[in-house]
Design goal:
The protein has helices at residues 4-19, 32-45, 63-71, 82-89, 95-117, 128-135, 165-174, 179-182, 202-218, 269-282; strands at 24-27, 49-55, 77-80, 121-123, 155-157, 226-239, 242-255, 263-264, 286-291. The chain is an alpha/beta fold. The protein binds xanthosine-5'-monophosphate. Xanthosine-5'-monophosphate binds next to helix 6.
């Protein structure tokens, strides 16, 4: 990558040239990619930018509130679409289908907002590995392949399309974004939906959200690419002398340079045990916790 200051200057110019005197909306999730894009676009077109945060109901604990706090001063459109997303996901079990459903609904919501604010352009924080993985047919990353080919925008602008994650972080630091954003772990566009294997329900999402909070809390100081929880099925357990059929949570913690390949961390056994006890103790619906020791390849980092 060129120096961050040169990158920023070029990206701001690109956005300004493309949008002209029009308006744009940007899909803001609060992750490092979309946050950097939002700041770049705000520099380029100021109040003609409308960041849109869609509360899909599939975000981690506290995320929607944090976005409001950090970006609330801009023309932020905060859309509560939880019911719409859960409704659309009902009965969907195929991972690719899930991504398509979510990507499609995202675009429809954005289109609605774009129409309301009369924006012609959609700006997205797509980065290089997203494009490669979607082209390679590995997965439809929701901000690339999951998007329908017909949309009503004049154009889609992706200022970060040539950057790797570590380069985006460098730009984030240069732009002075808070550390909680510049150093934030990657989080998939379709959110916790791809961390529930099989059908998504509000109950399962709540379980995986609580487990994620515990894993993030316990592994806060461990150096990593990502650490998270997924709900991977059901199993028999015993709680308070009663046999129960509850959820299985898988912990995944990996190191990686760019997300294209990954290695599981050799976590300390006591640390793993503590997480298992906390997850089963604090979340009544969970009866079993496993640690995923598979590298990528052959596994992907996320379960779906
Ligand atoms: P996989 O599961 O493909 O993930 O090994 C590689 C990295 O990409 C993240 N990921 C996504 N990021 N939109 C994104 O912006 C998506 O749809 C998406 N799916 C996966 C994943 O968390 C990992 O860091």
């Amino acid at each position: 990558m060129v120096k961050p200051e040169v990158f920023v200057e070029n990206a701001v110019k690109e956005i300004r040239d493309k949008v002209g005197d029009g308006k744009a909306i940007i899909a803001l999730s609060g992750g490092v990619d979309s946050s950097v894009c939002t700041v770049l676009a705000y520099k380029a077109i100021g109040d003609r930018l409308y960041p849109v945060f869609v509360d899909t109901g599939l975000m981690r604990a506290g995320e929607p509130e944090r976005v409001k706090e950090i970006f609330g001063k801009m023309n932020l459109r905060f859309i509560d679409a939880k019911e719409e997303f859960f409704e659309a996901l009902r009965g969907v079990t195929d991972p690719e289908e899930k991504r398509k459903v979510i990507g499609e609904l995202f675009v429809r919501v954005f289109e609605r907002v774009a129409e309301e604010v009369e924006a012609d352009y959609l700006i997205q924080g797509t980065i290089y590995p997203d494009i490669i993985e979607s082209q390679g047919g590995i997965k439809s990353h929701h901000n690339v392949g999951g998007f329908p080919t017909h949309y009503s925008f004049k154009g889609v602008i992706e200022p970060l399309r040539e950057l790797y994650k570590d380069e985006v972080r460098e730009v984030a630091r240069y732009l002075g974004l808070p550390e909680e954003i510049s150093e934030r772990m990657p989080f998939p566009g379709p959110g916790l939906a791809v961390r529930v294997v099989g059908e998504v329900t509000p109950e399962k999402i709540e379980v995986v959200r609580k487990a994620t909070e515990i894993v993030e809390d316990e592994l806060r100081d461990v150096e990593k690419w990502q650490a998270f929880a997924s709900l991977i099925g059901k199993a028999t357990g015993v709680k308070g002398d009663i046999r129960v059929y509850g959820y299985i949570i898988s912990i995944r913690a990996v190191e990686s340079r760019d997300g294209m390949t990954a290695d599981p961390l050799r976590l300390d056994y006591d640390m793993l045990r503590k997480m298992a006890l906390r997850i089963t103790g604090e979340i009544p619906e969970v009866v079993r916790v496993v640690y995923d020791i598979t590298p990528k390849p052959p596994a992907t980092i996320e379960y779906e």
